[in-house]
C-alpha cells in the first residue's frame, strides 16, 4: 500500500508504503528514507538509526532528560520521537520539506509541538548558524541525504564546524555516512578538520552500508569497563542494543 503527498516542484514527492508491520517513508524514489514499526511508533526500527543514539555511551543516564537534542533532516522522525517520548529530552527537528513534516504527523505519529518539542521548517545549514543556538545542543543527529539517498547534502568542514559550535562542552554529533562509498574518507576528513581526529568514533558499516560516525565536542577516551557499564545501562533503560554496539564501535584514531 502506497500513499503519496505532492510537494513544491523543486522538492521531491513524499510517499509512504507499508511492508507488513513496517511503514516506510520515500522521497520521490523507492529508496527508504525512514521506517517505523506500526505497532511501536516510538521505538527505533532501523539499525543505523539506533546507532545514531551512541552518544548515550558518553553521558550519565540520569542526566539525559535534562539535555537538549536536535535532528537535522526529519525523515520519518524516529530520532525526534525517541528523544522526545522515550528519553524525555527537549527536542528540535529542522526540516526543509514541509510535506515531510505533514506526512510525519499524518502517518508516523509525530507528536504535536509543545514546550519540549519544536519542528522548524528551514534550511538546516543556515538555521544552525543562528548565534543564539551556539553551545545549546547536547545530542546533534545529522541525516541529510538527497532524494536518491546518494550522498549527504551538507558534508563540508565548514558545515561540521557549524555543528561543533552548536554543541555543549560534553555534547556529541552523530552523522549517517555511507561507509562503503568513495565519499566516506572525504567526509571523515571534513569531520576531522572540524572536530580533530581524536574526537571521532565510528561504527563498522551496517549490512546496508550505513556508517554512523560520532564526534565529541570535547574528546574523551573512556575505559572499556566504563563503556561496558554505560552500554548495559542504556540497554536496560531504553532497550537499545548498546552492548552489541561495543563490538563494532571504535575510535577513529589509534
Concise summary:
The protein is an alpha/beta fold. It is built from 8 helices and 12 strands. An 8-stranded mixed β-sheet has the order 7-6-5-8-9-11-10-12, with helices on both faces. It has a 4-stranded antiparallel β-sheet with strand order 1-2-3-4, with helices on one face.
Explain how this protein is built:
The protein has 254 residues and is α/β, with parallel strands linked by helices. The protein has a single domain (42-251), classed as Rossmann fold, CATH 3.40.50. 28% of the residues lie in helices and 27% in strands. It has eight helices and twelve strands. The chain has helices at residues 47-51, 78-86, 98-107, 124-127, 157-166, 183-195, 224-238, 242-245, and strands spanning 2-5, 14-19, 22-27, 34-37, 68-72, 90-95, 117-121, 137-142, 167-178, 200-203, 210-216, 249-251. The strands form two sheets. Strands 7-6-5-8-9-11-10-12 form an eight-stranded mixed sheet, sandwiched between helices. Helix 5 (157-166) links the parallel strand 8 (137-142) and strand 9 (167-178). The chain is globular and about 45 Å long. The chain starts with a strand and ends with a strand. Mean pLDDT is 91; it is low at 4-9.
Amino acid at each position: 500500500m502506497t500513499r503519496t503527498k505532492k510537494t513544491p516542484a523543486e522538492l521531491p514527492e513524499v510517499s509512504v508504503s507499508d511492508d507488513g508491520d513496517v511503514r516506510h517513508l520515500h522521497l520521490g524514489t523507492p529508496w527508504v528514507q525512514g521506517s517505523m514499526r506500526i505497532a511501536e511508533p516510538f521505538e527505533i526500527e532501523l539499525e543505523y538509526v539506533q546507532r545514531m543514539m551512541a552518544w548515550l555511551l558518553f553521558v550519565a543516564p540520569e542526566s539525559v532528560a535534562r539535555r537538549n537534542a536536535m535532528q537535522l533532516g526529519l525523515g520519518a522522525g524516529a530520532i525526534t520521537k525517541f528523544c522526545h517520548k522515550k528519553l524525555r529530552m527537549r527536542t528540535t527537528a529542522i526540516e526543509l520539506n514541509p510535506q515531510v513534516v505533514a506526512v510525519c504527523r499524518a502517518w508516523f505519529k509525530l507528536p504535536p509541538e509543545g514546550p519540549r518539542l519544536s519542528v522548524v521548517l528551514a534550511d538546516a545549514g543556515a538555521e544552525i548558524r543562528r548565534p543564539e543556538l551556539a553551545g545549546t545542543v547536547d545530542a546533534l543527529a545529522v541525516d541529510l541525504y538527497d532524494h536518491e539517498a546518494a550522498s549527504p547534502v551538507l558534508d563540508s568542514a565548514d558545515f561540521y564546524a557549524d555543528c561543533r559550535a552548536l554543541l555543549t562542552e560534553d555534547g556529541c554529533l552523530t552523522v549517517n555516512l555511507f561507509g562503503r562509498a568513495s565519499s566516506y574518507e572525504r567526509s571523515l576528513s571534513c569531520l576531522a578538520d572540524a572536530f580533530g581526529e581524536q574526537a571521532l568514533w565510528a561504527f563498522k558499516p551496517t549490512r546496508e552500508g550505513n556508517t554512523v560516525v560520532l564526534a565529541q565536542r570535547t574528546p574523551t577516551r573512556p575505559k572499556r569497563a566504563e563503556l561496558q557499564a554505560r552500554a548495559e545501562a542504556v540497554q536496560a533503560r531504553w532497550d537499545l542494543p548498546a552492548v552489541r554496539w561495543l563490538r563494532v564501535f571504535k575510535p577513529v584514531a589509534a
